[in-house]
TrEMBL record:
Keyword Amino-acid biosynthesis: yes
Organism: Sporosarcina limicola
Domain of life: Bacteria
Binding site for ATP: K5, F6, G7, G8, T219, D220
Protein name (database record): Aspartokinase
InterPro entries, sorted: AceGlu_kinase-like_sf, ACT-like_dom_sf, ACT_Aspartokinase, ACT_dom, Asp/Glu/Uridylate_kinase, Asp_kin_monofn, Asp_kinase, AsparK_Bifunc_asparK/hSer_DH
Length: 455
């Protein structure tokens, strides 16, 4: 039995959903079908999830929502018409959206979650209706009915293993199950969504809980490439990689697969395959436990922007017991997670994602580090990017960091931070945002275009 997830681009239009039905029909093992909300049909199109966020924000501001509501309904209407379905399903969707809009606004986060989740929920209902229309024995299954359990607020949303036993029963259900991605329910029945891109996580949870033989993740590219194809021209395809490699690359900027989606599949040893809905016969990328990395120590290079660094300098910091804990506690109190903490004898930097900072928090952190930790020097810099080289064989290959540093020097940029050692499979360079693309291109050339002679 296989679990298949179809991403936003795969279910963005009637034409795409017809391809999905063909893919499902062509392999009787494809039993659990996880779907996203309709995504982009062309590059400057708007995803339904973004339309829903706008709709929820309009409602929360107390403004009239009719125009925003109709924009969402019309996206589904267009799809339903293209699939030859009657107006009934569109009416079901419109009624559902109106009910959600009439819901409790007291907790704006939960109100927003409820509207965001409707993107996948209504698309799953629509796709199940279409499958039945073309003769497939399919039914929509609600994550609440199936038992996809998530934790309570205020913590970050994650699936609870307590839900696995009930979810495993999906395996024995007759026919095809169409399951909405992106959200689950707490024990007391409250809906919560995963982070953006989180339908990948739903697919992985179901694949793990049901003991699927394969988790197929269908998207709009033939495979995962060694670098982002929108930045590097014609990057090479990765045919096989390990869970750890994909996790590191996804975290560092390979948006093709969600970094939190690796763990459930990894824990139950379910192999993952990334495939193209527009070219399903292409072999795709396999994600497995181990690969032979003897001739290819670096498998991919990812880059992501939006980082800030707090630099703290204090004479004899290395001898001050508890300094690091107290510094990180400040971040905990401000509810800011940290990404890296490179250090020297008398200094420590804390690298965080800038999205967690506000002007107010920034000023408060700097003041508290000066006043409470008696630091000699404190400053915060924004506009950093992290470029990450990933590969299982990197640890055991000499001269790799030197090659990377030389390539970065060749690009004319300077390195702000290096982090190697903590992770066995990655080497992280902190650079200025303005240098990100040229460095990525230079590193790609060094590790993938100079052929493998130098490896
Ligand atoms: N290294 C990479 N390999 C493949 N695709 C990548 C990579 N880095 C970024 N991407 C982007 O990820 C996109 C697919 O992810 P996404 O848009 O989330 O798809 P979906 O709609 O299927 O969820 C690709 O179109 C590609 O532009
Ligand atoms: N629709 C949600 C969840 C998701 O996984 O979407 P996609 O498959 O289009 O990345 C989002 O846009 O975040």
């Amino acid at each position: 039995m296989k679990v298949c997830k179809f991403g936003g681009t795969s279910v963005a239009s009637a034409e795409q959903i017809k391809k999905v039905a063909n893919i499902v029909t062509s392999d009787s093992l494809r039993k659990i079908i996880v779907v996203s909300a309709p995504g982009k049909r062309f590059s400057d199109d708007t995803k339904v999830t973004d339309l829903l966020i706008h709709l929820a924000e309009t409602a929360l501001r107390g403004n009239d929502t009719e125009i925003e509501l109709q924009e969402v309904v019309n996206r589904y209407r267009l799809i339903a018409e293209g699939l030859g379905l009657n107006e009934e399903i569109v009416q079901v969707i419109e009624k559902d959206l109106r009910e959600r809009l009439a819901g409790d606004e007291n907790d704006p986060i939960l109100f927003m979650d409820c509207l965001k989740a409707s993107g996948e929920d209504n698309n799953a209902k629509l796709i199940a209706t279409y499958f039945v229309h073309v003769g497939l024995p399919a039914r929509y299954v609600c994550p609440k009915e199936a038992g996809l359990l998530v934790n309570q607020r205020p913590e970050r949303v994650r699936a609870l293993p307590e839900g696995d036993e009930r979810l495993s029963e999906l395996r024995h259900e007759p026919g095809i199950i169409v399951f909405p991605g992106f959200f689950g329910y707490t024990e007391d029945g409250t809906l919560r969504t995963f982070n953006r891109g989180g339908s990948d996580i739903t697919g992985s949870i179901l694949a793990a809980a049901t003991g699927a033989e394969l988790y197929e993740n269908f998207t709009d590219v033939d495979s995962v490439f060694a670098a982002n194809p929108t930045i590097v021209e014609n990057p090479i395809a990765i045919t096989k990689m390990t869970y750890r490699e994909m996790r590191e690359l996804a975290y560092a900027g390979f948006s093709v697969f969600h970094d939190e989606a690796l763990m459930p599949a990894f824990r139950r040893s379910v192999p993952v395959c990334i495939k193209n809905t527009n070219n399903p016969d292409a072999p795709g990328t396999q994600i497995v436990k181990e690969r032979d990395h003897s001739d290819q120590p670096v498998i991919g290079i990812a880059a992501d922007s939006g980082f800030s660094t707090l630099f703290v300098d204090k004479y004899l910091m290395n001898q001050e017991i508890g300094f690091g804990r107290r510094l990180l506690q400040l971040f905990e109190e401000e509810e800011i997670p940290f990404e890296h903490t490179p250090s020297g004898i008398d200094n420590l930097s804390v690298i965080i994602r800038s999205e967690y900072l506000t002007d107010e928090k920034e000023a408060r952190i700097i003041r508290r580090v000066k006043d409470e930790l008696k630091a000699d020097n404190v400053h915060l810099h924004s506009n950093y990017s992290m470029i990450v080289l990933v590969g299982e064989g990197m640890r055991h290959t000499t001269g790799l960091a030197a090659r990377a540093a030389t390539a970065i020097a060749r690009s004319g940029a300077s390195i702000q931070m290096i982090n190697q050692g903590s992770s066995e499979v990655s080497l992280v360079f902190g650079v200025l945002k303005e240098d990100e693309i040229k460095i990525l291109k230079e590193l790609y050339e060094e590790f993938f275009q100079k052929s493998t002679i130098a490896l």
